[in-house]
Backbone:
């Protein structure tokens, strides 16, 4: 990466931190198969003042959903499930208070067209840590209705992704977290990343921050973790390791000698399945949002939970990625990551 590009990225991060009073941000960029920028800025915790590094682990929130999609595509490729099959084929205890639930397919959940409602309460203040948390959550959905007919329209649903995580667990014969660890994280060398917060290295884990009524930024009393919501939210990773995730996807399923998915899978995963009605990401793939940045077709996922923000963007044709992670939930990490992508894709934008 040219020195001017590096300086421009540093300046964008500094301005984002200043404008939003953000404690810590980590950013990484990959270009043409290489990690070309990875830096931490600020602190992991405003009380203890440890510096953010490229190896700092952040709660990735909904970026986790891209791991759910990859796991399901793996299982489909291996002939272990049918993406067009009703979810109840694999989870006989999955039911809702609307008989149309029987028609909901895996692919509808992946594309947010299942008609399922969204989560209203994550229970971050009463986290569950045991192996049975996810199935209990799925069973608890029985009183819920649908907000649309299956396949009718886009409606973002974290609940649907919890159900998909349980599908992975039951088809694979192990917990959702164990499957992702064995079949995705370890093969890709993402050895510090984890879905289980108690397995995250505490010396690397950033703290969540929130604003007080007076505008001060403090460490949150609540850490966003609950095993019942692991599939929608609880990946803990660094920009260094998420860059390996990016490189694998930009290589259409391979990182070095390791292949996670076949190239053909991306024709399905990254094609439009629904219109979102969103100005910036107008189409929905299979867990991936689709849109344009700097005239380039991009795929992405953003995330936000108490005390954390995340943004992960790929420009496949240019083989470029940008990842931004922060430890303040009101920060504009998506704007920062967009601006960084602009600088990398269009160097003239540096001014």
Residues:
């Amino acid at each position: 990466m040219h020195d001017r590009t590096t300086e421009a990225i540093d300046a964008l991060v500094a301005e984002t931190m200043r404008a939003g009073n953000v404690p810590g941000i980590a950013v990484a960029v990959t270009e043409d198969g290489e990690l070309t920028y990875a830096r931490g800025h600020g602190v992991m915790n405003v009380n203890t003042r440890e510096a953010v590094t490229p190896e700092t682990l952040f709660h990735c929130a909904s970026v986790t959903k891209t791991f759910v999609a990859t796991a399901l595509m793996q299982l489909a490729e291996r002939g272990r499930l049918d993406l067009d099959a009703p979810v109840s084929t694999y989870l006989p205890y999955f039911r809702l208070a609307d008989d149309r639930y029987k028609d909901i397919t895996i692919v509808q959940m992946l594309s947010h067209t299942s008609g399922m409602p969204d989560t209203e309460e994550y229970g971050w203040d009463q986290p569950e840590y045991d192996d049975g948390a996810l199935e209990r959550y799925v069973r608890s959905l029985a009183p819920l209705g649908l907000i649309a007919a299956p396949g009718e329209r886009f409606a973002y649903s974290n609940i649907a992704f919890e159900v998909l995580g349980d599908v992975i667990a039951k088809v694979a014969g192990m917990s959702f977290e164990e499957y992702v660890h064995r079949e995705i994280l370890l093969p890709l060398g993402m050895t510090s990343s984890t879905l289980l917060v108690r397995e995250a290295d505490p010396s690397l884990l950033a703290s969540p921050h929130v604003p007080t009524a007076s505008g001060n930024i403090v460490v949150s009393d609540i850490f966003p973790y609950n095993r019942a919501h692991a599939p929608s939210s609880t990946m803990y990773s660094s920009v260094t390791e998420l860059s390996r995730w990016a490189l694998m996807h930009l290589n259409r399923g391979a990182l070095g000698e390791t292949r996670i998915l076949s190239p053909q899978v991306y024709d399905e995963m990254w094609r439009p399945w629904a219109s979102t009605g969103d100005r910036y990401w107008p189409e929905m793939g299979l867990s991936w949002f689709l849109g344009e940045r700097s005239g380039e077709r991009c795929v992405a996922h953003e995330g936000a939970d108490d005390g954390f923000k995340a943004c992960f963007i790929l420009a496949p044709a240019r083989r470029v990625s940008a990842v931004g992670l922060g430890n303040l939930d009101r920060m504009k990490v998506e704007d920062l990551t967009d601006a960084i992508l602009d600088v990398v894709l269009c160097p003239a934008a540096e001014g």
Remarks:
- The mean pLDDT is 96.
- The longest helix spans residues 3-20.
- DSSP finds ten helices and 14 strands in the chain.
